[in-house]
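Appendix B, record 7
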Amino acid sequence: MKKSIILTITAALMLTGCKDSFLERYPEGGTLRQDQYEKLSDQLEGSVRGLYVKLYSMGGSNHDEFGKRSIDLWGDILCSDIALTGKTYGWLYTDEQMLTVNRTGTIWGFYYGMMHNINATIRAFKNGTEFTQHINTYGFPSDITDDKYKYTEAEYEQAVYYAQVLALRGYAYANLARWYTPVEGSTYMKGYTIEDYSCCPIYDEYNMDAAQPLSTSDAVYKQAFRDLNLAIRLYEEFGATYIRPNKLVIDLEVARGILAEAYLNAAVYYPEEKKVEYLKEARKQATAVIESGKYRMISNANLLKTGFNNVSDESWMWGQTVTVETSGGLKSWFGQVDIHSYSYAWAGDTKVIDKNLYDLIPDWDKRKDWFNDGTANSSYILCPDGKFFSAANPTSTKDDDLDRDWLSDNVFMRFESMYLIAAEAEYRLAALGAGDYSKAVTYLKTITDERKYEDDAEADAAYAADVASWSDPSALEKAIIYNWRIEMWGEGYGLETFRRWNDVRTRGGNHDYNKGGKADATEDSYNMNIPSSESTYNPNLKNSDKK
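Structure tokens (predicted):
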């Protein structure tokens, strides 16, 4: 049984009566109370640790709301990469219907709730430490030429905490911009550019006590870039010897990964000059992670063995160790998706790969075995039982064998995504005359070389033919999109890939809703409205024409 000491978490046991007594709520992380904060020996450390709790806890009783991994799930269902095959319990069904109406307020509240705590921590940090005053006086260590200016060991530690908080704020703003900026070509974006579309308010440590007007998507992205770039500089200058206590904590490489993804998502909205600049930044940050040597891709030999359930996996850059204190039980990724856990998927509300997407997987691709083809277990066809499975019960679906502890870990960022970001950025740069298609192929091939069936002459020949076809830019584009959808299936990249490429696809026949229907990224259903609560209570939005 996993055990950990988490200073900022209190556990509460709450039971909710529900259909067939199946829907039970189990202990999950909470937030730090003021009296607890005052008793901590290191208030700064306690405050920063408390910020991470929000990543895996949304509060409330809904079993489809459990922090970052639930938002990942919503997006992957919304874009049709994940299909719901039934609605016995009803969770996630509005996502299956490609509707954002029930999510817009929750996502808004999730990121702004995180933002409030972040800004409060930054303000307390600036008021309670000398580091922020000294950085204005001394500059960064690499700038110091006068021996009378010198940072203390304590200030080096404070700088790393400050970097974490800035990275979290940058992460929140990058996601707000991603979710609340409409797709180009949609009716919501008609007549607007990213530089004049009013997206959402920007709150910082100075203005957080009063409602703020909407800022443009451009301004929100730039706020994210500023925070993340400053965080990276702080890590580089003060964190050379820093070793994070666990993978939930953001370090230099995770900050780079967040920034690379943000630049990639933003770039598609801008005119060519800015597009090239942001694509180069996405490539720069992703390749810096690759060249750091800190992580390794999941090998071919281990592809079907990880279960994506253990944060110690060498490809996981960012993730949550799930403990007895932090397990959400049924209210968790494995409580919703894993057929080897006591879960909604096991009980009938299966979440499976879209059949049309599954049919795209070529015969050389070993990732096909991530999904149940029905040969061994016809009750759970196309469930991801080869990719996500319980650490405690990796094979059985018998009632007596089911994992009822839900201690499998949660993945937030994986090393393979850095190669995909680099490949896509290089491809888009090449299309603009500023990159090299062959380099995009190299980045992509680094992943796919580890994904083909081994010791199989037919697979080798088919794979070689596929790779050869990537010399055609249109085939390479399809290969990049395909690998985003397959390699990162179930990890929260589906919707942003769908929106970034303005994709149009046909839903597979295994969806419970709209079988064989069209999914078009420009449709209004894929664009998030400002929640009614914000429009009602923020006086700056009273006369806004934004939806």
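Remarks on this record: The CA atoms of residues 18 and 24 lie 7 Å apart. Strands lie at 82-84, 198-201, 214-216, 316-320, 351-353, 410-414, 504-506, 518-520.
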